[in-house]
Amino acid sequence: MHQEIENNVRAAAQLNSPNDRESFYVKLIATGLPACTYDVTWAYIFRSQILALMEINRRVMPIAEVKVFYDKAAAEYAGTYVNYSFEQWMGFMKSQTLIIWHPTGMVEITVQGRDFLRYLTHWGRYADDRKF
Which fold has domain 45-129? Predict the structure, then answer.
């Protein structure tokens, strides 16, 4: 399949940008890489994290207010959260570059976090589609 994809990409570059195939490849990567990254994020993100991210998108929040989203989910899904700490919950969002947790205790969304929310909207994905 790898060879077929290579051939298809080369043909598409020749067809769409015969005089500047490099720009075609750059656009393809710039579109495909975030989509792949967001698909992986979507596969593992919890409902509570999306809800928190949506609120953080509205305003920079103190960590105590962000923790309310975790605490609510942890109370509702105690079995799932028993071995999933708040630090791990936040760590997932940080590792996906969705948020910045400042040393001052404030949390803000990143450009990538906002783009992830746009991706969810574009593909009709909602927090309620996820568990926990």
Answer: Arc Repressor Mutant, subunit A (1.10.10)
